[in-house]
Specification:
CATH class of the largest domain: Alpha Beta
Oligomer: single chain
Structural class: alpha+beta
CATH topology of the largest domain: BirA Bifunctional Protein, domain 2
Strand order of the largest sheet: 1-11-12-13-16-10-9-4
Helix content: 25-40%
Largest sheet: 8 strands, mixed
Radius of gyration: 26 Å
Number of domains: 2
CATH superfamily of the largest domain: Bira Bifunctional Protein, Domain 2
CATH architecture of the largest domain: 2-Layer Sandwich
Amino acid sequence: MLDVNLIRNNPERVKEGLLKKKVDPKLVDKFLRLDEEWRNKTRALDDLSAEQNLVSREMGRNQSQDLLSKAQILKQRISDIESERDVLTSKRDDLLNKFPNLPFDDVPVGKDETENKVLKNAGKKRDFKFKPKDYLSLAEHLGIINVKKATEISGSRFGYLMGDAALLEFGLVKLAFDTLIKEGFVPVVPPVMISPQVYKEMGRLSSDQKEDKYFLPKDELYLVGSSEHTLGPLGRGEVFEESSLPRRYVGFSTCFRREAGSYGKDTKGILRVHQFDKVEMYSFVKPEDSEKEHKFLLSMQEKLVGSLDLPYRVVEICTGDMGWTDARQFDVETWMPGQGENGEYRETNSCSNTTDFQTRGINAKFKNKEGKKELLHALNATGFAVGRMLIAIIENYQTENGEIEVPKVLREYLGKDKIKI
């Protein structure tokens, strides 16, 4: 959640940030009005509690009927105002939940993905002597992805990974873990279900995000949309020693998304699905180190994608396209020669600095050198979104006869250098 004091003390800055993220800035005025009512009730309760304490002390010396009556009246007034404040608290919290994290001042301002900024191009595109095919036609021919059977069993936006595609997945996961553990990341297999309260604390039930989540009402649990969602709560209610920072985790889990709002987009194949597997990085750092950590996580993404010898580019996401919880976001887009007419860059990795937006919700802190507790900053970054990396590998490593060369770095995991019938 956003810092309440920031909204109170610098409402114009908050309005400007909301506008950049395409959120109605009138929310600020609505919140401040409600917040003032809440503060008035809180002050009234403090005054009544102080008066109640005085009466209690007097009653310790004098059990008069007048004091007893006064004590009963005070008790009822406190109960009434507490009920009124509880209603205001609920309304205030619901309104606060509609505030996204504010973008840093130097983030590119734009309305949508067309105004994102390309920062870097890396890797060399392969010079095919033939017209590259799309991954699905190649994979179906080789029998390594079966979308038709998955649709029959589970409906649209599902797929079976078969044979060498399944082995490629676990090769990618092992490669990511081997690489990141050397950099001090703690390996984690997190839960894929999360309580509504903790999900809300992570800022992931705000606005239209809720519509993209699978909820199990009988169990009061959500299925996670990313490993990040249950990696972050590892710091919930914790106070880390400054000397233990940065605290870095790498998690692997299955993720679930309704893909709300993506009607008609990438409906075939496994690029945009309801269920997918992902390796995710998550860091807790001191506030002054979060921008440095952000660049470090991005460098890890580049190292992973680069190790597969895939062409990619780094993009800074503009304010109108960036995530709800993010103050700054980078994407890695990998070249996929079989997409569109002449190939396309598609997002395979996302890297976000959420500052203290999530840590305020989960109350994740550290103790500084002076012994004072401060909110941590939290960051998350995709290691490998498995399905999308499989697409990139299949399309970039295809041969004219429809076989798939295995990237050199994955050959030891698969025990072969080519996927063929």
